[in-house]
Design goal:
alpha/beta; six-stranded mixed sheet
């Protein structure tokens, strides 16, 4: 029967009415709006071939922060698979038994049939929560191959533990992401290995050791996120989705979020196929969800609170120190998480809007820069490339280009993406000279080795950078 339904899907398309049909939409714009659950292959940059070229300059060093690839959900969501089965059956019943199909914006027959056929993959169990998927592995292997194709002199195919330095957090998804990236660079059989993970990973997971950061109200009562979810825009969206699915009442918000999350995960797991549950939503309904996520991350890890830009002090210092140093390692690659990537971008001033995101300016900021779908997808990555330009005057020979998800970052103090290294050092001087033990978590929530030692270490870093320039 299931095979017969698959054969009938193309035939059903001929009988479609004017209702929106996700499975028949070749552009599927909403798949580029799934916030941190967006598939990398859908939003990655496509102009790297032109952007990496810097006339008269030679790339010398590279620094990378790479978010893990596509992963499985948390255990709490995996355990709700039975509820998705119930929702599936209720939707089908609405359309085929109760005849409560809406007059406008109804499910098309193809999408309804796809939902009717959907089954949870029972091989995914709670003990596999947040594991990297095969698509996630391909994501990382692929980005390594892409950057190596354009920077073969910086990313040689032979591994050398002096030339390369890798580091990841203590999770399965980042460990496997590192392995995938190494495979992309060196082949299936390679000797690449990461540095040891410290007991307190203040470089890649500083947020785990800062109570004041954890206690920030970015989505609780009174937050912009909470205000938005109390707005008419949000509530009307829930009503419209419920009506579209044939319900004569507004579905519980958690049920709608569950269907939406399954839509996002399944689309990211299998980029070249349609996620069945995405058919439950119109493109404009997904846009409403995206802004909610952007508010949450804007205040949780972005420009919503000033101190968010201080959190990744050590990571910015790591970038500046390694790229300033003439010696090895020539390539430094870190594999971390969404919070790490977003707070790094915030510290560097990337994709900052002139107007703050709020619950009441959703329509005004339709073209905002802070779109987590584009800056923080699965496998999102920030890459800094250091160039030497011998044909120009000595004070301007060192330059840098920053890439975010294979797209050159446009900073207003750089020349069309090409930055003087001296300007980079000046721009981030406050962070490079900071005592990170105090700078990023001033409430004292972070463990440190003592202010004296921390100040000494910071002074040494600043002195080394000064000598190099």
């Amino acid at each position: 029967m299931r095979f017969l339904c698959l054969l009938l899907l193309p035939l059903v398309a001929f009988a479609q009415d004017d209702d929106y049909c996700f499975s028949q939409d070749s552009s599927r714009p909403q798949t580029r709006q799934f916030s941190s659950k967006t598939a990398y292959q859908i939003v990655k940059g496509t102009d790297l071939e032109r952007q990496y070229l810097v006339p008269g300059c030679e790339p010398k060093k590279m620094w990378i922060f790479h978010r893990h690839g596509t992963r499985l959900p948390k255990k709490s969501m995996i355990n709700k698979a039975d509820r998705l089965d119930e929702l599936r059956d209720l939707i089908v019943k609405n359309y085929q038994v109760l005849k409560t199909k809406p007059d406008n914006d109804a499910l098309c027959q193809t999408d309804l049939l796809a939902i009717k056929m959907w089954k949870w993959n029972s091989s995914i169990t709670g003990d596999m929560e947040e594991y990297l998927t095969s698509q996630g592995y391909d994501d990382l292997r692929g980005t390594a191959k892409v950057y190596q194709r354009y920077y073969p002199s910086v990313l040689p195919k032979e591994y050398n533990d002096t030339y390369y330095q890798f580091r990841h957090t203590n999770t399965q998804r980042t460990t496997e992401s590192f392995k995938a990236f190494a495979e992309g660079l060196f082949g299936t059989v390679n000797a690449a290995h990461p540095v040891d993970i410290p007991k307190q990973d203040l470089l890649l997971r500083p947020y785990d050791y800062c109570e004041s950061f954890k206690n920030v109200n970015y989505k609780g009562e009174g937050s912009e996120y909470e205000k938005y979810q109390q707005s008419s825009v949000w509530k009307n969206n829930l009503v419209a989705i419920s009506t579209r699915l044939g319900f004569q009442y507004t579905l519980d918000e958690e049920d709608i979020k569950l269907m939406y999350d399954m839509c996002r995960y399944e689309q990211a797991w299998q980029v070249d196929r349609n996620s069945v549950w995405c058919g439950a939503f119109l493109p404009e309904q997904v846009t409403v969800f995206e802004y909610s996520e952007d508010l949450r991350y804007y205040y949780g890890s972005g420009y919503g609170f000033t101190d968010n830009g201080r959190l990744n002090c050590r990571l910015v210092q790591d970038l500046l120190t390694h790229l300033s140093n003439k010696d090895s390692p020539h390539v430094v690659a870190h594999f971390g998480h969404s919070t790490g990537l977003l707070t790094l971008l915030t510290a560097l001033g990337v994709n900052k809007d002139d107007v703050k995101l709020r619950a009441d300016n959703y329509l005004e900021l339709a073209s905002r820069r802070w779109k987590t779908s584009l800056i923080d997808p699965f496998a999102g990555n920030f890459v800094a490339v250091k160039y030497n330009c011998p044909t120009v005057q000595e004070s301007e020979r060192e330059k840098a280009v920053f890439f975010l998800n294979q797209d050159a970052v446009k900073l207003d103090w750089c020349n069309v993406g090409l930055c003087k290294w001296s300007d980079v050092l000046e721009k981030y001087k406050t962070i490079s000279e900071a005592d990170c033990g105090d700078y990023y978590c001033r409430s004292g929530g972070a463990p440190s080795l003592g202010s004296g030692l921390s100040m000494l270490a910071t002074s040494l870093v600043a002195f080394v950078v000064y000598l190099m320039h």
